[in-house]
Specification:
binds farnesyl diphosphate; Farnesyl Diphosphate Synthase; binds magnesium ion; 346 residues
Length: 346
């Protein structure tokens, strides 16, 4: 029987599915009723007199996305006994996804990234100015949702948005004359990626329990899970192909992003790394050569080990939570999300 191109793509993706994948399906199924409410709440926030302010967010929404942040908020609350999500939880989970959508619109403009989730980036499709304003619109809608809630949620959301902007501005590029340590990397990732995961864990817990230690532990879980998630993303940038990434491989290399892999390559004292990032122009051939070398290198193996360490820290944060109504099946689903994150790159 003849195999079509799309059959073979499908088989390639299925080949990547390992034991954590079926457990993660359960996790998303567990969150599904809550996620449907979150999706409705998001859509109800997208009404505007300006058509493009509705079209652009819908464009982003229909490209898929895993809704991993709202899922973390819903499962965090459920693990502590909130089986049916409260209206406040749905608001805050929707707010978190709206903030995430705003950052994607702005980030693609900043990174001049032509593709996201297999489609043209919003600013390429609709123009720079409307996409920038759509990001602002989503951010204000998110604040509209969160500002109805208590001061803890308002303050945590504000802190997170400040961290997102700090992370994005501090990240910089590898030829700006500044040497990056692993600690600098952790600081940037903590702000630009882990902060929203941390917010999700924290507010999910906060709405379900009055115990500040548990709220802190779920925030810590989100922080470490988010860090591992970004590390895997950085690894996949050199090991995966466009089918999986939804954008060309090697983007971090070409853009000289201080990703985990790029920092580890520079720290390996391989003179080729210094030369690559310092070169005036990175040609397609140079990028392809670096990609081929790195994807099989000890640098990537070392990065995988580091990502595994952060996933283990996430598991430990969850395991230290003691609560009389702890829902073990939901805890298992949160752990499955962490395992699946790792499985994508192992
Ligand atoms: C994606 O990183 C970028 C972020 C997660 C943070 C973006 C933050 C801003 C644009 C600041 C604006 C803040 C608000 C609150 C609107 P990446 O480029 O490594 O990931 P990618 O591969 O998904 O593009
Ligand atoms: Mg980007």
């Amino acid at each position: 029987m003849q195999t079509t191109e799309s059959d073979s793509k499908q088989q390639k993706l299925q080949g990547r599915i390992g034991p954590a994948a079926s457990r993660v399906v359960e996790a998303f199924a567990g969150a599904a009723p809550g996620l449907a409410l979150v999706e409705e709440r998001i859509k109800s926030c997208l009404r505007s007199d300006a058509e493009l302010l509705e079209t652009i967010p819908h464009y982003l929404l229909t490209q898929g996305g895993k809704r991993i942040r709202p899922t973390l908020a819903l499962l965090s609350a459920r693990m502590l006994g909130m089986v049916r999500p409260s209206s406040e939880l749905v608001d805050v989970a929707a707010g978190i996804e709206l903030i995430h959508m705003a950052t994607l619109l702005h980030d693609d403009i900043i990174d001049e990234s032509p593709t996201r989730r297999h489609k043209r980036s919003a600013y390429v499709e609709f123009g720079m100015m409307p996409s920038l304003l759509a990001g602002d619109f989503l951010l204000v809608r998110a604040f509209g949702l969160c500002a109805r809630l208590d001061s803890f949620i308002i303050e945590e959301t504000e802190r997170t948005c400040i961290e997102l902007t700090e992370g994005e501005i501090l990240e910089g590029v590898l030829n700006d004359g500044i040497t990056r340590s692993f600690e600098d990397y952790l600081d940037v990732v903590g702000k630009k990626t882990s902060s929203l995961f941390k917010l999700a864990g924290k507010v999910g817990a906060h709405l379900s329990t009055s115990d500040p230690e548990i709220t802190e532990a779920l925030g810590e879980f989100g922080h470490f899970a988010g860090t591992a998630f970004q590390m895997i993303d950085d690894i996949l940038d050199v090991t995966a192909d466009e089918d999986l990434l939804g954008k060309p491989a090697g983007t971090d290399l070409r853009q000289r992003t201080p990703s985990l892999v790029n920092i580890a390559w520079l720290q390996s004292e391989d003179p080729a790394a210094t030369e690559f990032f310092a070169s005036e122009k990175i040609s397609e051939a140079d990028a392809k050569h670096a990609l081929d070398y790195l994807s099989q290198s000890a640098v990537v193996s070392e990065c995988r080990e580091i990502a595994c360490e952060y996933a283990a820290k996430a598991r430990a944060s969850l395991n230290k939570i003691k609560h009389p109504e702890l829902q073990l099946d939901t805890k298992e689903q949160l752990l499955a999300i962490v395992d699946y994150t790792l499985e994508r790159c192992l």
